[in-house]
Amino acid sequence: MVPERMTFRDTFIYNNYMYMLLGHVAEKLGGDTWENLVTSRVLKPIGMTSTKMMLNPVDVYEKKAARPYTYKDGIFQNGTKEIYT
Fold first, then answer.
1. What does the pLDDT look like over 12-25, one tens digit per residue?
2. Were both Cys, which of 56, 61, 79, 85 would link to 68 (CB 3.0–4.6 Å)?
3. Are residues 29 and 58 in the same domain?
4. Any domain includes 80
């Protein structure tokens, strides 16, 4: 929780909207989707040829991928597909 009377630049507030905007700008400037740009300009040049972007949450359960976990009632539990909805 951020105190009400903080002045500009005295505190940090995380915001996903700027990351979304940055991805959109990258797509426009790069002339391709964010996923394709990351794959062709970051992953392949450093040799990560088997790393894939999963566009649909259900892909986690249908392909060989790390599965999500949730922390509930003091223990970690296997996540379900509903975690993404």
1. 777 788 888 999 99
2. 79
3. no
4. yes
